[in-house]
Amino acid sequence: MSGRAGNVRFVLVVSAPLGLTACNVWQSALDAHGQSAEAVLRQFYGFTALSAGIWLLVIFAMIGALRRRRSLAERLAAPLERRSRPEAFATIAVSTAIGLTAAILIGLTTWSFMTGRTLASLRGRETLTLLVTGDQWWWQVRYEDSQANRTFTTANEIHIPVGQPVKVKLESNDVIHSFWVPSLAGKEDLIPGHQNEIYLKAERPGVYRGQCAEFCGYQHAHMSFLVVADEIPDFEAWRSRQVATAASPTGEEAAAGQRVFLSRGCSICHTVRGTPAGGKVGPDLTHVASRKTVAAGTLPLSRGSLAAWIADPQAIKPGTNMPRVALDPDELNAVVAYVAGLQ
Amino acid sequence: MTRHSVADVSGLPTSGFGATSPMWWGTMAFMAIEGMGFALGVASYLYLAFLAPEWPMAPPPDLIPGSLVTALLVVSVLPNHLLDRWTKAKDLKRVRFGLLLMSILGALPLVVRWFELGALNVNWDTNAYGSIVWLLLGLHTTHLLTDLVDTLVLAALMFTRHGRSGKRFSDVSDNAFYWDFVVGTWVVLYLVIYWFPRI
Amino acid sequence: MTSHPADMTKDLRDTDLDDPTLDGILARTWETPRGFYGWLATVDHKMVGRRYIVTAFVFLALAGLAALAMRLQLSVPENSLMGPDLYNQLFSMHGTTMMFLFAVPVMEAVAVYLVPLMVGTRNIAFPRLNAFSYWVYLFGGAMIWIAFAFNTGAENGWFSYVPLAGPEFSFGKRSDFWAQMVTFTEVSALAVAVSLIATIFKQRAPGMSLDRIPLFVWAMLVTSFAIMFAMPAVMISSTMLILDRLVGTQFFNPAEGGDPLLWQHLFWFFGHPEVYIIFIPATGMVSAIVPTFCQRPIFGYQALVLALIAIGFLSFGLWVHHMFATGLPQLGESFFTASSMLIAIPSGIQIFCWIATLWLGRPILKTPLLFVLGFIFTFVIGGLTGVMVASVPLDLQVHDTYFVVAHFHYVLIGGAVFPLLSAIYYWFPKISGRMLDERLGRWNFWLAVIGFNAAFFPMHLLGLEGMPRRVYTYPAASGWGEVNLFISLMSVVFAASFAVLGWNVVRSLRHGIVAGPNPWNAGTLEWAAPSPPPPYNFLRIPYASHREPLWNDRDSLPVVSGLRVDARELLSGSLAEATPELRESSVDNSIWPLLAAIATTAAFVGSIFTPSAVVWGGLLAAIPLIAWFWPKGNPEDEE
Predict the structure, then answer these.
(1) Which long-range contacts (CB under 8 A, 24 or more apart) does C499-507 make?
(2) Is A8 inside a domain boundary?
(3) Nearest chain B Cα to C16, which residue?
(4) Which of C397, C402, C404, C487 would best serve as a mutation to test chain A binding (most A beta carbons within 10 A)?
(5) Do A194 and C327 make contact, defined as CB atoms within 8 angstroms?
(6) Residues A226, A139: one domain?
(7) Of the four listed, A11, A99, C586, C620, which is most buried by Cβ atoms within 10 Å?
(8) Cα(C518)–Cα(A49) distance, rounded to whole angstroms?
(9) Which residues of A touch C480 (CB under 8 A)?
(10) Which domain holds residue A54?
């Protein structure tokens, strides 16, 4: 919706309860592409329509009460003078309204349970299991498999096969986070000491943005990720590339960059599979250049953004756990060349 | 607007016992608040216990000091009720004696409580089990302490000229009522702290 | 301290005194001495209530400024105006202040002022406890804002989830100040609740049986009980938090058997009733105002009382609906969906009864009633989105987004602040003796209702479009920019409505029309006292012949006689029928509640820095507490 004129946005705001909203390329619960999100969206539109109707009835009743014509006798009556017929009518009207409220609530509760069952129907049917671990302020993603050589770890970008139920196990290394991809499903918290799970099933290929939904400290605003739903062959190809160890640096600059990477502390926190770098504190960088973003969705990936991030992480994400390493311009360019080559 | 009198209240007394006295309701309200605090403390204990793979997370506390505190407290209920009866009879001499006795019976469990803390077999910072046990004991010890101070102040008061006021008797009665609450909550806590880990 | 007639055994009664003589003696018995010392030592519920209300509005202004600062930051994407450190403190201070220092205290404050008048007594029960509660509240609120001024404000939201607020992730003293602020405000809220319960149970005017209690008083009774049973939960949890941080306990540390969810259970066991602790008094205000401006009794009194009690009970069965995303067992979540839906029924009953009263009466569209209409218009939207978030699947989508921000502001501002504003316009003449200006009142009303709805309705859409709560900035590519700018502009309109209110109050205090005792021709007892009421409230204790005594006894008010007037004395009666049982003395002014509050403050603030403060602070606080209770030889002490 970006770039539209403000008045168009306002029309959308006003018309939102009527369901007249457009597709959204960012993260949006109104732009549902997952089985769960679609079921929730249907329920949302139903609840909204009903709510709008109830609200209008209440407002009409209120305005009617204000505008009702009153006889002279009624206007002059003392406060405690009772008129039994209107009282009886009001008793019937109020009782009916209470009865209707109860009936509608039972209906809505049932509807809610039905949606809940749709959501639960994905349980146990997964063809892929991931373990997502929350860290301040990025996401570690582990693809699990019974074959050890098909498991691998990546970060901040999740690929899933279209049409397949995927189980995502959720854990946290530090504080509470919440995993939320609005276009695919609702959210679920990542809580230290607990393991939660959420199921995703993308109905259409696409790139769906997700973001941490539980306040988690300084950079809660910059803790997003992407879920890429691929057709199955594309997904398998991606997976094979991710399982592989890192590409060797090509060219003199990248090779120099690898030396800087290994000697200047980067490897204390980061793993690059196939090299001595084996740090576990920060994201796995084996295929970092194959991802679409840098720093958990903070910047789109490019050589420029990588350079900016490595040169001064605190300027881009104040409070991030990645320290600023004093590199001279040549070292910085070399490291960027090396990292940008980690396809 | 004019006024006309419909009732004469000049014959009413100026102090009363139990539900007649607003202070009794105040005491009752504070007991409800503190009782809720104890209930939530016990609920937290049980929550942590059911979450933990094994409970207690340390050897259970030694029985002797805690049971001694329990015995002392339960025994003190009898003189406490005698004091309440003397209070309602406005028998100043016996009330003075009763308050002195209850001051001693309030101090004794506090002395044993000191040994009880040493017999818990866990520190507050060892693990969550230790934390919640110390919290429950701390909560109750605070109540013992405040009621002891209250009793001592009342005892001193009853030996002054203020002791003859009807309101003071009502205060002593409320204090006795509160002591029952302190004893009653301890019985529950005793079962939770000492016997729950043994079942 | 008040000077008393030299002869203490005088025992002068009101029976045979004429009105001017009685007024002279009662005024001397119940007065607060002039001067600074008298101001500090007063236990008059009207003075305490008034300063409570003013203080709460000061905190409202501070929290409102924090909100405007947040809106400024969010008005454009990637704004560099402030960083996360300040923004996180701002939203934490905003929520903390609004919930702990404004919404609950202001409702209790209005009750401290009004309940004794409405039930026809001369002072609140336990007046010194009431004075103490104000000082503790003032010092606690001042403490957290002074801490904020020194860059040590709350930073983890008004909910302070662990482990984020725990020893490992929140450095410095910010979380500790937050936790102690909770202790302060809970102590004061509980003290007021106890005073109100005893006042309502024991000090009602003769004749005011349970079925004649004004609905606002019923609402405060239910609220006070909810406070009694909800607040201990947050006191326990904030104590655990501060122990984890200060002495290394392990309540919330999963590595040592603790659990972060224990915090959430305890916090929301308090936090959900908290919403109703704010909302129930507001409904009581509406139930007091609607009959006056319809000039007929409320429709469905019994149903409304039962609805209040039902809401009070049900509010304790909803806390898990704040935790649907924490992975609790599904069966449990379904139970909480059903109970959350259920509470819509008593809320609906109230709305229907008010509309029926409007229908049956003859509505007079003065500012107080306008705000009631604005309340219904706005609150019903919040109630309906509340039904949405009660549904687990919908909640999992909108939880922790701007949709929920919109929802609870509709409930809290639409459902509680609009009735409060209505109450200000309604009872201001009673408190000040002068009417608020009606033309400014209409400006206030329209700016508030339009500004609020324009600012908060679009947030529903922002939430659905994926904007999470508590983010200090958002990318331009999100497309959230224009709506946020619009919201920020409208928030200024909403803020302007409070500026109009402030101007109206300041102007009317000097130039407002003189009100007289009953300017609205209302039916309840507070309007039988002069405006503003004298220190002793009622020349003679009224007899409640009806639910609306002033409508029933239009010519002459029935009263009782025989009370002592040379010492502070009031009537105490039976719980159900309010049959007089005691001539109960009411304590005199005293400086000790203030000194006790200062000692308590020293203990609480000290314990942020050293656990030993609990010991020396406790000893320190014991001295003024004993002095407070020790009889001073006044006639009130010797009865």
Answers:
(1) C500/C440, C500/C443, C500/C444, C500/C447, C501/C421, C501/C424, C501/C444, C503/C440, C504/C436, C504/C437, C504/C440, C504/C441, C504/C444, C505/C424, C505/C428, C505/C436, C507/C437, C507/C440
(2) no
(3) B5
(4) C397
(5) yes
(6) yes
(7) C586
(8) 45
(9) 26
(10) 35-120
Could you tell me if residue A24 is inside a domain? no
How distant is the alpha carbon of residue C624 from its chain centre? 27
Measured between CB atoms, does C22 come within 8 Å of chain B?
Answer: no
Residue A6 lies in a domain: no
Q: Tens of pLDDT along C509-556? A: 999 999 999 999 999 999 999 999 999 999 999 999 999 999 999 889
Chains that touch C (3 or more CB pairs under 8 A): A, B
Tokens of C547: 């639910």
Domain boundary among A75, A98, A120: A120
Residue C101 to residue C91: CA distance in whole angstroms: 14
Query: Does residue C585 belong to the interface with chain B, where contact is any CB pair within 8 Å?
Result: yes
At A191, phi and psi to the nearest 5?
-125, 130
* Chain C residues closer than 8 Å to B4 by CB: 556-559
Q: What architecture does CATH give domain B63-198?
A: Up-down Bundle (1.20)
Question: Please, what is the average pLDDT of chain A?
Answer: 91
Confidence of residue A14 (pLDDT cuts 50, 70, 90): very low
Q: Which domain-ending residue is among A184, A212, A243?
A: A243
- Residue A180: what residue type? W
Q: Sort out which chain B residues have CB atoms less than 8 A from C637's CB and list them.
A: 162, 165, 167
Residues A94 and A142 in one domain: no
Residue C21: half-sphere exposure toward Cβ, Cα within 13 Å: 9
C254-308: pLDDT as tens digits = 999 999 999 999 999 999 999 999 999 999 999 999 999 999 999 999 999 999 9
Which residue, among C58, C242, C246, C40, has the nearest Cα to C142 in the 3D structure?
C58
User: Which residue among C126, C559, C622 sits closest to B3, beta carbon to beta carbon?
Assistant: C559
Asked if residue A152 and residue A91 are part of one domain, the reply reads: no
CATH number at residue A261: 2.60.40.420
Cβ neighbours of B120 in C, within 8 Å: none
* Same domain (yes/no): A231, A134: yes
Total structural domains within chain A: 3
Mean pLDDT of C12-40: 94
The answer to whether the CB atoms of C326 and A13 lie below 8 A apart is no
Contact C461 A16 (CB under 8 A): yes
